[in-house]
Specification:
Elements (H helix, E strand, L loop, with lengths): L4 H29 L2 H6 L1 H29 L7 E2 H7 L3 H27 L1 H7 L2 H26 L5 E2 L12 H32 L5 H33 L7 H9 L3 H13 L1 H10 L4 H10 L8 H9 L7
Antiparallel strand pairs: 1-2
Helix pairs in contact: 1-3, 1-10, 1-11, 3-5, 5-6, 5-7, 5-8, 5-9, 8-9, 9-10, 9-11, 11-12
Protein name: G-protein coupled receptors family 1 profile domain-containing protein
InterPro entries: 7TM_GPCR_Srsx_nematod (IPR047130), GPCR_Rhodpsn_7TM (IPR017452)
Subcellular location: Membrane
């Protein structure tokens, strides 16, 4: 096999996976946005889908960028960390596409824990204004992370043999180590916290809203659990490559790192399973319940409404009562 073949296959894999992830997240965002109540209730989840949409876009941009280098023969030309970050266009979406979902998932986990452990306080503060404020804070944190990445890469002349421009070859060692460690820890801590809350809730919470709280906690646990599996693998692989614990060819890296893209598909499936509103809205959009509606309409034929003036005339003739 030619030495560049694994890289080409990785690019093709990224194009396919990125496209699927983008479509899945566009569907999620669309379903949430077209319904006013869902738009307000799930504004933070919309932000999560936006983050995963950026992640899907990063796959496509990475594939185009690396594929272009392969085609024009510059792939094997050495490149510095500074050039990767400031002269290539995909590393920024790689950073944001993994960090932003981790930040939003952490915010969602905190919200769920408050909803279960401090329901009165949660009802008082869980307003649209509060959720927007949370997203503003998350945005500023993300901008801070991205700025730190830029500072770490600025005038960094460390040279790399190929123009892959991974996160680990586009930023300083301290930032790439922080990046992958943060992503893993954010999901692990969120999952453990939710699991502890879920166990205590099952044992101690006996009110009438228990089933509903279990339902929401189950969704959050499922999302964070999938995230640990699908995000921890590529993060561990990239950390191992950074510190030279092992060596993997580009196709192997592509398969390992591709698991993050499956998170969008997993989120879509979990939305369909756990959210009644999402499921109903999705069926309505794709007209999956058209036959059922038609049957009801065939059996129920309501009396046509008459304008008031016709009712009066009819009443005068003894046909209909005056409304």
């Amino acid at each position: 096999m030619d030495s560049l073949t694994p890289t080409l296959l990785m690019c093709l894999l990224y194009i396919v996976l990125g496209t699927i992830a983008i479509l899945a997240n566009i569907l999620n965002i669309f379903i949430f946005l077209i319904n006013k109540e869902m738009r307000k209730k799930y504004v933070i989840f919309i932000a999560l889908d936006v983050g995963e949409l950026i992640n899907g876009l990063s796959y496509v941009l990475t594939a185009i960028g690396r594929g272009s280098s392969l085609l024009d023969g510059t792939f094997g030309v050495p490149i510095t960390v500074h050039e990767c970050f400031f002269e290539r266009y995909w590393v920024h979406s790689l950073i944001v596409g993994t960090e932003l979902p981790a930040l939003v998932t952490t915010a969602i986990s905190i919200e769920r824990i408050l909803a279960v452990r401090r329901p009165i306080f949660y009802k008082r503060v869980a307003t649209m204004k509060t959720r927007i404020l949370i997203l503003v804070v998350v945005t500023f944190i993300q901008l801070g992370f991205l700025s730190t990445a830029a500072i770490s890469a600025y005038h960094n002349v460390t040279e790399h043999k190929t123009r892959q421009c991974f996160i680990i070859t586009s930023t300083a060692s301290f930032f790439s180590t922080f990046h992958f460690s943060f992503v893993i820890l954010a999901y692990v801590i969120s999952f453990v916290s939710l699991l502890i809350t879920f166990v205590f809730h099952k044992k101690l919470h006996k009110n009438s809203n228990g089933a509903k709280a279990d339902h929401h906690l189950g969704l959050s646990l499922s999302v964070t659990g999938c995230s640990i599996v699908l995000v921890a693998m590529p993060s561990a692989v990239m950390m191992g490559l950074k510190w030279e614990w092992f060596v993997i060819n580009d196709l192997g890296i592509g398969f390992c790192y591709a698991t993050t893209g499956f998170l969008s598909v997993a989120t879509t499936i979990l939305n369909f399973i756990y959210r009644d509103e999402y499921r109903s809205q999705l069926k309505s959009v794709f007209r999956l319940n058209t036959k059922q509606k038609t049957k009801v309409e065939n059996f129920v034929s309501p009396m046509p409404a008459f304008p008031k003036w016709k009712n009066k005339v009819a009443a005068g003739k003894g046909m209909y009562p005056v409304m």
